[in-house]
Design goal:
single chain; mainly beta; Elongation Factor Tu (Ef-tu), domain 3; 7-stranded antiparallel β-sheet; two-stranded antiparallel sheet; 1 helix; 9 strands; globular; Translation elongation factor EFTu/EF1A C-terminal domain-containing protein
Amino acid sequence: MLIVRADIKFNRPEGNTVESDGISTQYPLRPAFKFGDGLLFSGTIISNIPCDKFLYQESYHVNIEFPTIEGEAYEEIKPLINEGMILDIQNASRIIGTAKVLDFTYKK
């Protein structure tokens, strides 16, 4: 499993259709992350601080666990991932934020 330590920031939804000021952390957040080269993997965002929601346009230090990135999938990701890179956070095809990779580890 790939574990990424990152700073994330969620974009405010366009058109102000949502009256909320952020994304609730009441349930596990498992958006997709775009690694480039057509590779998109879902990851579970785990906050390093207790909070009820991730406020839009605020930066949060988190861990992101990618349980489906192992074996051959990790071999495909390994040359693409590096410290400092920016991953788009997606919900379906809509980009909802960014994650800046601080460091990463791979655990078998």
